[in-house]
Amino acid sequence: MPIAENFPEGLKPTGKISLSDGNYHIMWGPGKTANTDGSKPEALTDQDVVAAYKARGEEQVPLGVSGTMVAVDWDSCIADGACIEACPVQVFQWYRTEKDIPAKDVVGQTFDGTGSDVKDERKDSTDKADPIREHDCIWCMACVSVCPPQAIKVDQANVEAHQRAAETL
Ligand code: SF4
Asked: pTM score, two decimals?
């Protein structure tokens, strides 16, 4: 299922994921355990993702949406990497290639932006494409159309939601 058309309606900011240059993007939750049509989110059913969590001995929990103007639904993201390959300005990185921690623990973390932005360099299928340089987006929409589960929504107008959320954090 695509990320909700009305994102971020119904969600709340759960915290910041920071970049060491002073920029940050916002995580929204709660994560989802079911899509609007009742089906399970893609990350819960994708065999590679499920197997990767099992191999690590990590519990797979609802994660939410990373980013606001460039919003990636991490419960739908299956670590395909098409967005990472498509982006002309390297907005995304595989977060686990910089900090190999569970996705549920990224809120509050500061990254240097040194993670891989190469499609096939994900740590494993538990990794997520993180819009760590959201502020560099040039609104080309290339990432939106290539994402297999349509987990990405890019909307420059959501800068207002970002600013409102930032005031609460
Ligand atoms: S809209 Fe374009 S510039 Fe922005 S994150 Fe997607 S691919 Fe990158």
From this structure: 0.97
